[in-house]
Amino acid sequence: MKVLIVGGGGREHAIAYSVSKSRKVSKIYCAPGNAGIGMIAECVPIGAMEFDKIAAFAKEKEIDLTIVAMDDPLVGGLVDRLEEAGLRAFGPRKNAAILEGSKAFSKDLMKKYNIPTAAYENFDDPKAALAYLETADFPIVLKADGLALGKGVLICQDLDEAKTGVKEIMEDKKFGSAGNRLVIEEFMTGREVSVLSFVDGKNIRIMTSAQDHKRAGDGDTGLNTGGMGTFSPSPFYTEEVDSFCRKYIYQPTVDAMLAEGREFKGVIFFGLMLTEKGPRVLEYNARFGDPEAQVVLPRMKNDIIEVMEACIDGTLDQIDLEFEDNAAVCVVLASDGYPVKYEKGFVIQGLEKFEGQDSYFCFHAGTAKTEKGIVTNGGRVLGVTAKGDDLKEARKNAYAATEWITFENKYMRHDIGKAIDEA
């Protein structure tokens, strides 16, 4: 098979790595890709939102499967565009990707189908939102309705902070058109857990659990980012939690989308909060998480192409997902100043130390190949992932491997997976 992956970050590198292990695949392309992906795939200079160019390329190269990995092209309808061209694509169609594309839609869906989540209200008018806040309990959560690179969520401690947040999101358009609508949500406390799943429209198969670290600084301080590191599995995701979620969250979500005429095929990411009252849905994503994919996929035993084809064909019930009985930790190496302002173009040293390893991985997020060598080309630069027999060993291995890499402006958190010690 010839496979095209759409995207160019750490998630796409992790997917490309998994695809490269498939016995079914002879050639991998990636649009646009990055320097790391270029080591295992042919990178094509086409942007993820250039739908016509992607479809034309897939036709020309007789691509057997296109994997749409990013939120923007999924929500924008790239899968629909490819299918209209008679091409096979993995990922939800536009009418199903709204599960991530609109937080207001997903909250309303959960309310309608009794899927446990935080209490909330949706607003189109900033004045109505401000009036509601006058009667609200604090802290409270403000969420831009649309896609905002994982950063469109504000936790406000008091009324003044919340008023400023409404202004930033709805009037100043800090997150662009994503802030045309606003979700105001009850603040939940507990452990966060990320659970990825494969879905074929009717059936769902749950992957191993993970936990992300969103804040830029140690101790969960600083600004929200796209993710500074992850670990898998989560020791807080017990059999009891799993049983509850399967019954009241996972399958009910798939059934709800089908009942709404929005058959979902692809990956659903469940962002969960383990509250005192039980698990609650924080958010849905319509694709692999990043960097969650970087700790989940290296542990998956299945041929990823077989699983993806089962999702497309509606035969996922015939697949048993299997994961290694071990653990993985990913530490993101970023450019100092991320997620606000940072410099690019610094040469990266030490990448060769990961070659030939089967327990250590270096997934490229923001890199580029130049005459000087591979250089930094983004806020999140690399995801250093390591396996271990258990989480503590994996964490120790991952941090040891971060020392193999050097570049000017290198920044990372030093407490990824610290919660493991409390489990």
UniProtKB/TrEMBL annotation:
<keyword id="KW-0658">Purine biosynthesis</keyword>
<comment type="pathway">
    <text>Purine metabolism; IMP biosynthesis via de novo pathway; N(1)-(5-phospho-D-ribosyl)glycinamide from 5-phospho-alpha-D-ribose 1-diphosphate: step 2/2.</text>
</comment>
<dbReference type="InterPro" id="IPR016185">
    <property type="entry name" value="PreATP-grasp_dom_sf"/>
</dbReference>
<dbReference type="Pfam" id="PF02843">
    <property type="entry name" value="GARS_C"/>
</dbReference>
<dbReference type="Pfam" id="PF01071">
    <property type="entry name" value="GARS_A"/>
</dbReference>
<dbReference type="InterPro" id="IPR011761">
    <property type="entry name" value="ATP-grasp"/>
</dbReference>
<feature type="domain" description="ATP-grasp">
    <location>
        <begin position="107"/>
        <end position="313"/>
    </location>
</feature>
<dbReference type="InterPro" id="IPR037123">
    <property type="entry name" value="PRibGlycinamide_synth_C_sf"/>
</dbReference>
<keyword id="KW-0436">Ligase</keyword>
<dbReference type="GO" id="GO:0004637">
    <property type="term" value="F:phosphoribosylamine-glycine ligase activity"/>
</dbReference>
<dbReference type="InterPro" id="IPR020559">
    <property type="entry name" value="PRibGlycinamide_synth_CS"/>
</dbReference>
<dbReference type="Pfam" id="PF02844">
    <property type="entry name" value="GARS_N"/>
</dbReference>
<keyword id="KW-0067">ATP-binding</keyword>
<dbReference type="InterPro" id="IPR011054">
    <property type="entry name" value="Rudment_hybrid_motif"/>
</dbReference>
<dbReference type="InterPro" id="IPR020562">
    <property type="entry name" value="PRibGlycinamide_synth_N"/>
</dbReference>
<keyword id="KW-0547">Nucleotide-binding</keyword>
<dbReference type="InterPro" id="IPR000115">
    <property type="entry name" value="PRibGlycinamide_synth"/>
</dbReference>
<dbReference type="InterPro" id="IPR020560">
    <property type="entry name" value="PRibGlycinamide_synth_C-dom"/>
</dbReference>
<dbReference type="InterPro" id="IPR020561">
    <property type="entry name" value="PRibGlycinamid_synth_ATP-grasp"/>
</dbReference>
<dbReference type="InterPro" id="IPR013815">
    <property type="entry name" value="ATP_grasp_subdomain_1"/>
</dbReference>
<protein>
    <recommendedName>
        <fullName>Phosphoribosylamine--glycine ligase</fullName>
        <ecNumber>6.3.4.13</ecNumber>
    </recommendedName>
</protein>
<comment type="similarity">
    <text>Belongs to the GARS family.</text>
</comment>
